[in-house]
Amino acid sequence: MYKIRSLNEGFRRAGIAFTREPVIFKDDQLTPDQVAMLEAERLIEIQHIPDLPQPDAEEEAHARKVLEKMTKDKLMKECDAIGIEYPDDATKAVLVDLLLINTAPPPEA
To answer: Which long-range contacts (CB under 8 A, 24 or more apart) does 80-86 make?
Structure first.
């Protein structure tokens, strides 16, 4: 996975628009050429994040169910507690996805 943000608001590179808010990309969402272009750009901050072990489908379904029962406010507090950055206008679904991507095992309700 890659965590990417622009140092300037509203910057485009490699066919993608970036803001100062970090965005997470899975490895297969970017071509090697795009990664090279982004790494060479001084106005882009790019960080490669090693993939976490993937839970099996049953574990992931259970984790999603636990997270979806939480309020948006509780999800934001969970993200804040473990340092997961999220956009100011993040929806509950986005927060759930970010927690699933960035935690193993999921927080308990």
So the answer is: 85/21, 85/22
